[in-house]
Amino acid sequence: MTAGDARPGGALRELSDAECLSRLAGSAIGRIAVCTPDGPVIVPVNFVLDRGTVVLRTAPYTWLAGHVSDQTAFEVDDLDDEMRRGWSVIIVGPASIVEDVDEVVDADLRSRLRPWAPGSRNMFIRITPRRITGREVSADRSSTDELRG
């Protein structure tokens, strides 16, 4: 969507890096996109923001663990279809397996990063942003009120 696609009176605004990180810090679910031999794959994951990086957990035998690479994207959003507003943040950067487990053994980090998926998830992956982009869109309030009747 571009600024020209927004309805008259609506707004499309780029988010600053600080706003992007704040939105990430307030979220728990995002989508990781990785390249595989069969093409791009995007899956939802729970995560935490840790010192400006995204950390998630997986198991060593999952397809995600096998596709950690320098070309990774991570996206978080919050959308309200009824109010026709929302925001989206995208991080692009390398993903790497955390080799030093002491780095993530911190009790606070571990307690915030409890896997939703079943099974043992003892591998940590860190995505370090090379680029952070975000935007927020909102509809014209009067046109939304008209739709409600």
Describe the structure.
The chain is an alpha+beta fold and 149 residues long. It is built from 4 helices and 10 strands, in the order E-H-E-E-E-E-H-E-E-E-H-E-E-H. It has helices at 17-25, 63-66, 107-112, 141-148; strands spanning 11-14, 29-36, 39-46, 48-50, 53-58, 72-80, 85-93, 95-97, 123-127, 131-138. The strands form 2 sheets. Strands 1-10-7-6-2-3 form a 6-stranded antiparallel sheet, covered by helices on one side. A 4-stranded antiparallel sheet has the order 4-5-9-8.
Strand and helix order: EHEEEEHEEEHEEH
Distance between the termini: 27 Å
Which stretches are low in confidence, meaning pLDDT under 50 for 5 or more residues running?
Answer: 1-7, 143-149
Largest sheet: 6 strands, antiparallel
Number of H- or I-type helical stretches: 4
Helix content: 10-25%
Strand order, main sheet: write it out: 1-10-7-6-2-3
Number of strands: 10
Shape assignment: globular
Rounded radius of gyration (Å): 18 Å
The structure class reads: alpha+beta
**Average pLDDT rating:** 81
**Beta-strand residue percentage:** 35-45%
